[in-house]
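Morning F.,

Quick status update on the modeling queue. The single chain you submitted on Monday has been processed. Sequence for confirmation:
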Amino acid sequence: MGSQSEAKAAIREVIENWAIWRDSGDFENLASCYHDDGRMVATWFAGPAAQFIAGCKAGFEKGAIVQHFLGGMSIALKGSRAIAQTKMMILSRSTLEDMPCDTTCVGRFYDFFEERGGRWAIVLRQPIYEKDRFDMLDPSHQPKLDPQLLARFPVGYRFMGYAQTKEGRTVNPSLPGLHGAEVLSLYGDGEAWLAGKNLLR
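Structure tokens below.
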């Protein structure tokens, strides 16, 4: 096991590689960001990382445009385990009423890391969705949104969830945001992870 600075540098590299490889379609390398039993949660997915990557690849090959921008990072280390929080933005190109639309979601990646065999990788990535918005590429066209569908999703990913549902995806309406029981539960899981307990989520 190396020093804390070495461990944090290795974790940071994984997180930064994830964004580049995910968005550029380098899915073979993306798999190396996770351990073999690694899992991923997104608005439209929860399960093994390998299945998430397969879904991203299918979307990429159909021309989907999704970009991730990273900001500040905080890493808590405890032996061979870590919790990394990274500020992020998710920018997605969608359509509403057959017109192009961009959704922007601001939040954090909350990553459960573990070092195994000298290699740090993700065991679970659980995003925290803090706020979002949508912008029509043609500002003169403002669609009339379905208020009932819009209200189905929390403020953190209301418009992104709306657009993804309109595209035919099933979106989880109960993911962690900036406030609330879901994010407090996630923080508790992070503390338990650092204390050596197994993941329950």
